[in-house]
């Protein structure tokens, strides 16, 4: 967020000839539509599914039709039911990982930004080590200590992403702390907690929100990768990654079993990335002036 004294020196952009401004980003709208449809599918799966997750009465590798919108898999389970369940798991993994990464990352990042000397160097080195630590290896360690569950996958992904968020927050907070209005606030007697809540966090949240949106897409891909390797949600939970792993042997005879989760996975990640770009365009004053 640009300080008020700087904003005051920026000339106001002229409105287009029609007298109306385009305050809506097309990128944001498309992203919301793509991600919103999959989020709606995940929400519906909480209350209704066409078949039970372990119902194998549909016949092996049946084609679309006959009560099965996308057909069945090699065990006779309804593919559309699995796709709906997979959308819920993907959204849960993305949200859970991002919330965990934000809680840990923002706390560590703010503390690292206020640290000085050897403590600052130690925290920075610790964050660099966490970032370099492979998410898959961390997931394997957590699964070995607990079990292969969705919670274990979320914990591993959230911890891995928290280091990225913490380093970004540290950089942003240090940049804000160097501004004159922070010095003025401290000179007037404002305590550090009030300075952080009233000046620091409001100035870093636009960039932080965009980064967290990108982390959501990465978390969805990471969960799919872990489930593909058997480190995600166990059966009968139909994660998209597990569906892809199970469908690779029957792709030529039943391509829908692989195409459906693969296409939805790509659309969800693209939608979230478009939302991140749209939010950045909406919150960036320079971008807004170019669009108006």
From TrEMBL:
<feature type="transmembrane region" description="Helical">
    <location>
        <begin position="208"/>
        <end position="231"/>
    </location>
</feature>
<protein>
    <submittedName>
        <fullName>ABC transporter permease</fullName>
    </submittedName>
</protein>
<feature type="transmembrane region" description="Helical">
    <location>
        <begin position="126"/>
        <end position="144"/>
    </location>
</feature>
<keyword id="KW-0472">Membrane</keyword>
<dbReference type="InterPro" id="IPR050366">
    <property type="entry name" value="BP-dependent_transpt_permease"/>
</dbReference>
<feature type="transmembrane region" description="Helical">
    <location>
        <begin position="28"/>
        <end position="51"/>
    </location>
</feature>
<keyword id="KW-0812">Transmembrane</keyword>
<comment type="similarity">
    <text>Belongs to the binding-protein-dependent transport system permease family.</text>
</comment>
<feature type="domain" description="ABC transmembrane type-1">
    <location>
        <begin position="87"/>
        <end position="276"/>
    </location>
</feature>
<dbReference type="InterPro" id="IPR035906">
    <property type="entry name" value="MetI-like_sf"/>
</dbReference>
<keyword id="KW-0813">Transport</keyword>
<feature type="transmembrane region" description="Helical">
    <location>
        <begin position="150"/>
        <end position="169"/>
    </location>
</feature>
<dbReference type="InterPro" id="IPR000515">
    <property type="entry name" value="MetI-like"/>
</dbReference>
<feature type="transmembrane region" description="Helical">
    <location>
        <begin position="251"/>
        <end position="276"/>
    </location>
</feature>
<keyword id="KW-1133">Transmembrane helix</keyword>
<keyword id="KW-1003">Cell membrane</keyword>
<dbReference type="Pfam" id="PF00528">
    <property type="entry name" value="BPD_transp_1"/>
</dbReference>
<feature type="transmembrane region" description="Helical">
    <location>
        <begin position="93"/>
        <end position="114"/>
    </location>
</feature>
């Amino acid at each position: 967020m640009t300080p008020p004294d700087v904003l005051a020196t920026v000339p106001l952009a002229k409105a287009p000839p029609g007298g109306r401004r385009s305050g809506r980003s097309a990128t944001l709208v498309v992203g919301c539509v793509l991600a919103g449809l999959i989020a709606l599918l995940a929400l519906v799966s909480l209350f209704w599914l066409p078949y039970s997750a372990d119902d194998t009465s549909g016949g092996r590798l049946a084609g679309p039709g006959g009560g099965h919108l996308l057909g069945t898999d090699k065990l006779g389970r309804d593919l559309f039911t699995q796709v709906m369940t997979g959308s819920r798991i993907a959204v849960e993994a993305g949200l859970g990982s991002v919330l965990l990464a934000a809680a840990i990352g923002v706390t560590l990042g703010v503390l690292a930004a206020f640290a000085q000397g050897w403590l600052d160097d130690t925290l920075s080195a610790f964050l660099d080590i966490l970032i370099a630590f492979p998410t898959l290896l961390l997931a394997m360690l957590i699964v070995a200590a607990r079990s292969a569950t969705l919670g274990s996958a979320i914990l591993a992904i959230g911890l891995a992403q928290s280091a990225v968020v913490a380093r970004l927050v540290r950089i942003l907070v240090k940049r804000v702390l160097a501004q004159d209005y922070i010095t003025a606030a401290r000179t007037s007697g404002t305590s550090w907690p009030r300075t952080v809540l009233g000046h620091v966090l409001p100035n870093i949240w636009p960039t932080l929100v965009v980064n967290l949106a990108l982390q959501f897409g990465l978390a969805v891909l990471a969960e799919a990768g872990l489930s593909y390797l058997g480190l995600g949600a166990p059966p009968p939970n139909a994660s998209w990654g597990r569906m892809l792993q199970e469908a690779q042997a029957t792709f030529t005879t039943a391509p829908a079993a692989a195409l459906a989760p693969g296409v939805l996975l790509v659309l969800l990640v693209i939608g979230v990335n478009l939302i991140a770009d749209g939010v950045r365009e909406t919150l960036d004053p320079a971008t807004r002036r170019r669009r108006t």
